[in-house]
Amino acid sequence: MKEIRGITCEVKNCVFHDKNDCCLAGNIEVGNPNATDESETKCKTFECCEGCNVK
């Protein structure tokens, strides 16, 4: 997998996260077209990695 330049990701439970906080997804989709604050946005490309803690 290759890094998406300019995209920083701190979601360590994602299969596309690498140890340098880069995204290796190839492309991403960010959701919530009605967002008015950054806390209301979500990465729809997220996939939980093996052994991640899902609540």
Please describe the biggest sheet, giving its number of strands, its sense, and whether it closes into a barrel. Answer: 2 strands, antiparallel
Percent strand? 5-15%
- Terminal-residue CA separation: 27 Å
Strands ordered across the widest β-sheet: 1-2
Overall shape: it is globular
* pLDDT < 50 runs, ≥5 residues: none
* Helicity, as a percent range: under 10%
Number of helices: 0
The average pLDDT value, as a whole number, equals: 89
Which secondary-structure class do the elements indicate?
little secondary structure
> Over the alpha carbons, how many angstroms does the gyration radius reach?
12 Å
Order of helices and strands: EE
Secondary structure: number of strands? 2
Overview of this structure, please?
The protein has a two-stranded antiparallel sheet. Helix content is 0%, strand content 7%. It contains no helices and 2 strands. The model has no long low-confidence stretch (mean pLDDT 89). The relative contact order is 0.28. With 55 residues, the chain is mostly loops.
Write the layout of secondary structure elements.
Blueprint: E1 30-31, E2 42-43
Antiparallel strand pairs: 1-2
Can you tag this structure with a few keywords?
55 residues; little secondary structure; two-stranded antiparallel ribbon; 2 strands
What's the gist of this structure?
This protein is largely without helices or strands and 55 residues long. It is built from no helices and two strands.
